[in-house]
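We give its fold:
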Amino acid sequence: MPSISRDVITSKLNDGLDYVASQVLLTTLESTGQVDTILGTNRVVIPSDWNYHRDLFSCDTNLENVQIIGSMEHLKRIVPNFDVDLNEGPVTYLTISGNYIVYCGIPSEVTTLTCGYFTNPTHLENDDDIPACIPLGLQKKVLESYVCHDLWENIEDGIEGRKVNTTYYREQLRLAIEELEDTTEVSQSRKLMYRDYNQWI
């Protein structure tokens, strides 16, 4: 269709990359970065050069590993007054809240936290760019189904009855994502489950 320009297609492809990265923990998007604690406070802004996307899965200092907690609410259940008492000590727990890394235990000296996480995928800009975060054999299948689904959803919006093309490409996208999860090396770097041995979880 003449209205679907090359720029539109590129934009949709990049939307597709973002979508895939939000659905599958791809090994190719694993990264590590460092950030220093700040004296007297229990949080620090996530560095912009991390290109952080999701799923902080590990953290260690020079002294010990740190337990990753899934949310602020969960952290407050483990240490109810951590955000009020601001107790000094080694970092024992870590979570993400908005644009901040929040840690429990405030070191008396600046401490470097080395964290593992997943980055945003690199967007395509030129015709020669390759969506390297997706395995070669699945790049076309995953991204083409995403783009076609998105375009047909807009084209068939308002049509009465069954939206044939939208439905078809939605199913193709679902199958492509399943194949990506089932047949490629998805990341095993997931944060360990927090276990409180004093109670059932």
About this structure: The radius of gyration is 21 Å. Residues 28-119 form one domain. Residues 197-201 have pLDDT under 50 and may be disordered. The CA atoms of residues 143 and 175 lie 12 Å apart.
